[in-house]
Fold this sequence. Notes:
Layout: H1 2-10, E1 26-28, H2 41-50, E2 53-56, E3 62-71, E4 75-77, E5 83-94, E6 101-108, H3 111-115, H4 119-133, E7 139-147, E8 162-163, H5 172-178, H6 190-202, E9 211-218, H7 228-243, E10 245-252, E11 267-271, H8 280-283, E12 285-296, E13 302-308, E14 319-330, E15 332-344, E16 351-364, E17 370-372, E18 377-381, E19 389-390, E20 396-398, E21 403-409, E22 416-417, E23 420-430, E24 435-446
Parallel strand pairs: 1-16, 4-16, 6-7, 6-9, 9-10, 10-11, 18-24
Antiparallel strand pairs: 2-3, 3-5, 5-14, 7-8, 12-13, 12-15, 15-16, 17-20, 19-22, 21-23, 23-24
Helix pairs in contact: 6-7
Amino acid sequence: MVISSLLSSLLLPTALFLAQEATASSLRINRVNPRDFAGSKARREAVQRDLLTSIAFPNGAGLASDVGDVFPGMVISADDQCMANVTVDATAASPGGGPVSTVIYVIDKSSSTEQGGLEGDIISFFDEFTDVILTYPSTKNVGVVTFGSDEDINLMVPENTAIQTPELIRNETEIKDSYRNVMVDGSTCCSCGFELVAELLDNNTDIVGSSVSLIFMGDGQCNRPANAEAEATRTGTELIENYNTSIISVAVGQVTCALLDPIPSTQCYETENPSDLPLEEIIGTKLISGTIQVESQDGIFDVSQETVFPDSNFSTDLKNETFDWNDMVMVGTYDVFATVVGQDASHPVESTVTDEELAFFQVVDDSPPTITCPDDIEITVDAPPGCDAPHIFTVASHDNCPSNTVQVKGLPSGSDFPEGDTLNKFVITDIGNNMEMCSFTVTVICDSLCRPYTKSPKANKTKGPGKGTKGPGKGSKGPSETKAPKSTKMPKTICPVVPKTKGPGTKGPGKGKGKGKGTKAPTSPPPKETKAPTSPPPANIMEKEEPPKKKAVKAPRILSARR
């Protein structure tokens, strides 16, 4: 258990694969995916590998999240309901991610190590630790520092208090050789070891990981210098604050964690024999859950789906879990967020990492709409109220996605269409900016009787003379009253009809009282007929033939008989 806590603390600092430093237990990375929608799958996968998002657990092991593929593709056609069935998958890995952690061994080489017979067990522990830590993708490099005491009268550092790897390395043999054959002597100067770690990091600033994890193994109480505990606390705290470092302590032999309390450890493990300490209890990890969140960039759609991974114990095995998201989505552009929750054995708090892919996939409307106009139509108007013709029509349209139909030319249905040709044009546009159009013509033809006219003035009315004088006997009928014909009023919008006029009939005088035949009384000749003027009909209207005029008949003069 001591070893598990030790390795967990070693990898404590949180880090990003892209050399981004992170110390929190939760990390979310925002970035725009540089891939375009038409990019090949191979290119997309290559970009994803480059942008793999990971952090380092407190024990130095990595936790990674990676948005994977989208099915059926990155550009998806909407179905006949303007929707698409989309699946997105992602991968959780631990230990995983990129090389973000620098692991440094801080090994006690004081005389108590030799006296307790622990030197060989300590070497065995670090050999096994090295074998495991180098298999972790998150491990960038390793450094080794040993410490004893500063009891030399000239304050000369003994051979066993030294940086054993001047450079941070990954070579297994070099790492294991660095802590063998080191002098075991002197008291326990814990602060001496921490000061050497700071020096090692300062000398390797260009290759140090974004997080640093220390495995501090001691078999004796920090007792040098005189203020040993205070110095151990000071130098350890400076490493944590200035170098983004976590410290895992392992108390071996007869030493307890209480005696190592001055060391600001993330976790402390106790064991009499370090070779008995399971590494999974120090540097083991486990995956807890994965959640994929899909958001539309217009903010309308936002759905998350969580996958809880099977229960597992902490282990040093490489773990990969695939989780996915599936739903029906509308036309639009979507961002994807894959969040992985995990934990390391050295730290009781869960850690999270989120891989974010902006504009990861699109659902498009690539089906054009349809629109159907009625056939061209001719309308003949031959009756009042005029030459404008009302017409009702229907334009049919269909699309799998919302669309808008607009009349861009002509008159709307139900309008009165004027004489001649009226072109009516319609355009339909859907949310995918697909457009279609149609048109038809309404032709109105006016019959010859359907013309406007100019109203003619009324004609003067002329009255003929009165009754003739009575003669003896039966008198002949005198001339009748003669009236000039009236002008005929024409209905609006109907061509004028030439009126028929009556002749001036004459009426004889009334009956006489005498027995003899009387002669008709002379009368004045009737005036000539006055014709009411009318406006001529339009040129294109056929004129009706005027009936012949009747001549006025003069009444005969009647002479009275002389007695």
